[in-house]
Amino acid sequence: MKALDVARAERQELCDLLLEVGPDAPTLCAGWTTRDLAAHLVVREARPDATLGIVVTPLAGHAAAVQDRVAARAWPELVRDVRTGPPLLSPFRLPGVQGLADPFEFAIHHEDVRRARADWSPRALPAEEQAVLWQRLARASRMLSRRSPVGIALRRSDTGEMAIARSGSPTVTLVGEPLELVLRLYGRRASVVDVEGPQEAVDRFESAHFGV
Fold this sequence. Notes:
The protein has 212 residues and is of the alpha+beta class. It has 2 domains: 3-114, no CATH class; 127-207, Nonspecific Lipid-transfer Protein, Chain A. It has 9 helices and 4 strands, in the order H-H-H-H-H-H-H-E-E-E-H-E-H. Strands 2-1-3-4 form a 4-stranded mixed beta sheet. Helix 1 (3-21) runs parallel beside helix 6 (97-114) and helix 7 runs parallel beside helix 8 (178-185). The relative contact order is 0.13.
């Protein structure tokens, strides 16, 4: 399984879930309903001018206005736009971009909808998908843990493989399946991850902010 296959599968499963729960369901993204989340995904792929507002403060108002207009679309139309993917002239249509940028994006937002419900439980992902997520996490973890006050090691609970996310002393070890580790390093507390290490280090890790 390739990264693009993971991205496509997670996109379709997320869209199926969006239609199931409707436009007003909660998500793990603070202040966002499923309608807001769907609009974000459409804007991300179709309006790079607005996407810049996420990181460029002077453009934040423009980004919010564009996302609000997109969110006002009829729900089936909005989900259809997420499902069909980036339009022809989108940067995301360039070769390799979706495989690079989308596996985490859609896996995480899929779980943002799933785990906002009280009865959520971890998904049993295919081993091939977990392997893709682990491979990408091993490369991205240094950036994701850059604000950690302690060293971080990652250990897969399913295979025992390890990676160093951040060197340092003291160090904590995060133990979980790759998807769960991805979620935790992206700041989602609704994840099944054990944090092992000296209690002081664990406490410092738990108090830190993670995510892009």
